[in-house]
Amino acid sequence: MGRKPIYSPEDKMQIVLSVLRGETTQSDIARRLQMSQTTIAKWQKQFLQGGIEALTRGENARPPSSKREEELEMQVDELTTALGEAYVELRVWRKGGALYPRTKR
Predict the structure, then answer these.
(1) 103 has a pLDDT exceeding 80
(2) Neighbours of 40 (CB within 10 A)
(3) DSSP letter assigned to residue 99
(4) Helix, strand or coil for residue 52?
(5) What are the residue ranges spanned by the domains of the chain?
(6) What is the DSSP letter of 102?
């Protein structure tokens, strides 16, 4: 198991934004925080990539679904289809259609 992150996502965002605004450089902030410049560059890349993905999806688009949500949506679709088929069969049966043989009563 990995170690607990030292910086919260909000802290990382503030660090990245200060670099992007030109308030400091990656090497200066890395030296001051006693961390790798590569780590700050990685945070900056992740931050910018996340923004690009958000812009690509558009303002009104839903966020990406989790695997569980996708499975549940597929299950809902299957159940909706099965319910529709059962409804059609019931209507045919009620109208005396040939879908089911007549029972002896």
Answers:
(1) no
(2) 22
(3) T
(4) helix
(5) 9-57, 65-105
(6) P
- One-letter amino acid identity for 82? A
Q: In angstroms, rounded to a whole number, what is the distance separating the alpha carbons of residues 9 and 46?
A: 11
DSSP character string of the chain: -PPPPSS-HHHHHHHHHHHHTTSS-HHHHHHHHT--HHHHHHHHHHHHHHHHHHHHH-SSSPPPPPHHHHHHHHHHHHHHHHHHHHHHHHHHHHTT-TTSPPPP-
Amino acid at 22: G
Query: Residue 25 has what pLDDT?
Result: 93
Three-state SS at 9:
helix
**CA–CA gap between residue 11 and residue 47 (Å, rounded):** 12
pTM, two decimal places: 0.52
